[in-house]
Amino acid sequence: MNLNVRPLLSCPTVRLSNGLHIPILGLGTSHHGGYSHRAVVYALRDCGLRHVDTAKRYGCEEQLGVSVKESGVPRHDLWLTSKLWPGDYGYSNAKRACADSCRRLGVDYLDLYLMHWPDCSITGRTNREVRAETWEALEELYDEGVCRAIGVSNFQIAHLQELKEDCRIVPHVNQVEFHPFQQPWALMEYCHQEGIVFEGYCPLAKGEALSHPVVHQLADKYNRTPAQICIRWSIQNGVVTIPKSTKEEKILENCQVFGFSLDEEDMDYIQSLHCHKKLIHLTYPLWNG
Ligand SMILES: NC(=O)c1ccc[n+]([C@@H]2O[C@H](COP(=O)([O-])OP(=O)(O)OC[C@H]3O[C@@H](n4cnc5c(N)ncnc54)[C@H](OP(=O)(O)O)[C@@H]3O)[C@@H](O)[C@H]2O)c1
Q1: Whole-angstrom Cα distance, residue 236 to residue 232?
Q2: 30, CA 20 to 30 Å: which among 62, 116, 128, 245?
């Protein structure tokens, strides 16, 4: 493990189709494993991270607002992503939910607002109809400047194709599960073709990838940690990457991924670990929760 690397001072960005630049490395937050105020302040203030991913569903928007304020980082230097939960789909609900997220976060605008999941369950309506109506609300929020970019999450190619037929603005981002055991290359290729930035969540496979022998072998070879190898691999694939940690030392470790690169054969070695393993599955009863 090499902790004698300078903290992240500046982070490469990925250009969205509307010309904005999203930092390629962000900090994940979630309702699982708790929320650490100290760790988020540390990430922003001491590590120089400028991109945080959250969602109404994670139940920590209000806490995140407090952490952001305490960090002292000016709003315009931050990239804040939040997500619309399917229980809030529909035109008016979506508008209200976005305003509520902004209020909880203590901000006037979001840098990126995502539809969290393609499916929902509204009696008498198809999911496609509801997605289109919801997306129209996001398009208006974008036009009004309340959301500087809009996107989707967990959308497959068919969902994106349908939305393209139904909508005015093609999503700027699709955020999906991406780690050594889950590598949806066809979806990534489709997103690239359509000008949709591909963002990957669970880059450490929720910690499961960190004990894989190949990841360990590469960590030894590069004198890095297993987490750094996984995050570097994701970033080196051009994927916007949002590892989560509630521990300051791990956040620092997860930021130190720009001072080295993996050889092509090692990129391929990790690519060979793909086994279609998905860690995130949502089910209908959750929508209204
Ligand atoms: N759009 C979606 O549907 C969706 C779904 C899931 C996640 N996400 C987003 O993606 C983010 C990341 O996903 P995730 O949290 O599920 O998975 P992850 O980032 O792959 O893994 C997080 C886990 O790894 C541990 N960890 C972090 N850094 C470590 C390190 N350097 N060494 C050892 N262990 C480490 C964390 O524990 P400690 O906290 O104890 O360090 C935590 O248990 C989430 O926070 C969320 O923002 C989005």
Answers
A1: 6
A2: 128
The neighbour count for residue 130, using CB atoms within 10 Å, is 20
38 phi, psi to nearest 5 deg = -60, -45
42 included as an active-site residue: no
Which among 35, 42, 58, 89 is annotated as catalytic? 58
Ligand 1: nearest atom to the Cα of 246: 39
Coil, helix or strand for 188? helix
Q: What share of the chain is helix, strand, coil (3-state, %, to 5)?
A: 45, 15, 40
Instruction: Give the phi and the psi of residue 53 in degrees, each rounded to 5.
Output: -105, 125
Q: Three-class SS of residue 142?
A: helix
Protein residue whose Cα sits closest to atom 11 of ligand 1: 28
The conformation of residue 77, written as its DSSP 8-state character, comes to G
What per-residue confidence (pLDDT) applies to 6? 47
Give the integer Cα–Cα distance in Å for 59 and 144: 26
Q: Write the pLDDT tens digit of every residue in 171-207.
A: 999 999 999 999 999 999 999 999 999 999 999 999 9
Nearest Cα residue to 175 out of 10, 289, 14: 14
Q: Which atom belonging to ligand 1 lies closest to the Cα atom of 205?
A: 20
Q: What is the percent of the chain where pLDDT is above 70? A: 94
At position 221, the amino acid (one-letter code) is K
DSSP string, 210-258: GG-HHHHHHHHHHT--HHHHHHHHHHHTT-EE--B-S-HHHHHHHH--S
At 241-252, the pLDDT tens digits run 999 999 999 999
Token pair, residue 74, equals 């000016």
The predicted model scores a pTM of 0.96
